[in-house]
């Protein structure tokens, strides 16, 4: 019978980002509203400042996430290109390197070499 236990650790990245982003958005917007209110501005001015802060925060978070994902994608593409060049240049060395990674993760050396090939 196959093992059916599931773990959620693979989904924690987006949850962490969402919690931190929401917290940052709430704190910065609340701080902006308190600062504007402390300046003895009208209720309308406080509301406009709050809405403007929310919009600016959302745009900032979206732009930041886009840049982050784009830079990660560029880095992964560069790594793949470098590995392709290394693989074409010295196939056996790359096979040994991959087998070593598997051995480091607990796979028996003979099986690691077979899997790497």
Brief characterization of the structure:
The protein has helices spanning 12-38, 43-89, 91-104, 109-116. With 117 residues, it is an all-alpha fold. The model has no long low-confidence stretch (mean pLDDT 87).
The general outline is elongated
Structural class: mainly alpha
The total beta strand count reads 0
**Rg over CA atoms:** 25 Å
Tell me about the biggest sheet? none
Overall mean confidence score, pLDDT: 87
DSSP strand content: under 5%
Low-confidence stretches: none
The H-and-E topology, N to C, reads as HHHH
How many individual helices?
A: 4
Helix content: over 70%
Distance between the termini: 29 Å
Oligomeric state = single chain
Describe this structure in words.
With 117 residues, this protein is mainly α. Helices cover 82% and strands 0% of the residues. It contains four helices and no strands. The mean pLDDT is 87.
Tell me the layout of helices and strands.
Layout: H1 12-38, H2 43-89, H3 91-104, H4 109-116
Helix pairs in contact: 1-2, 2-3, 3-4
What distinguishing features does this structure have?
elongated, mainly alpha, single chain, 117 residues
